[in-house]
Write a structure and sequence with these properties.
147 residues, OB fold (Dihydrolipoamide Acetyltransferase, E2P), 2 domains, five-stranded mixed beta barrel
Length: 147
């Protein structure tokens, strides 16, 4: 059951599943539930798409879905020091724009590094269920053994 907290924000009891997974985003959320990053893909042009949208390929067919590697690089970052009510324990929070190896960019939290160790170009990988904020995933530093 969905609750509303004292600040009138909807509280999702399971951040891995959206409050409503239907329509064009359903394959994305089904992938998240199975710890897979599913993105829309135009097979004809070889282009990946994120954010999820009702879109069509170059032949006018709905975009397909493919599993992305979940690997990428930090292209921008900031530190959030001010928390929304109820999230004070999660500050400071390191936020980043990650360019996936497939091309799309995702705004996310970073874990396993600090503002002293993060840098543009830092290689990162997706991590499901570990986000500092109630999000389905975050990114962490990619180890040399990750591929």
């Amino acid at each position: 059951m969905t609750e509303v907290n004292s600040t009138n924000f909807l509280v999702n009891p399971n951040p891995r599943k959206p409050l409503l997974a239907c329509g064009p985003s359903a394959p994305f959320w089904d992938g998240v539930a199975n710890e897979r990053l599913m993105l829309q893909h135009d097979a004809e042009l070889g282009r990946w798409h994120f954010y999820v949208k009702p879109a069509y390929d170059s032949n006018g067919k709905p975009l397909g879905w493919r599993e992305a590697t979940g690997l990428g690089a930090v292209v921008a970052y900031t530190v959030s020091r001010v928390a929304a009510p109820g999230f004070e324990a999660q500050t400071p929070n390191l936020l980043a724009l990650v360019k996936l190896d497939e091309g799309p960019r995702i705004f996310t939290s970073l874990i396993g590094c600090t503002e002293e160790t993060v840098r543009i170009g830092l290689r990162v990988r997706i991590r499901f269920g570990e986000a500092a904020l109630p999000a389905p995933f975050c990114f962490e530093i990619q180890n040399d053994t990750d591929s």
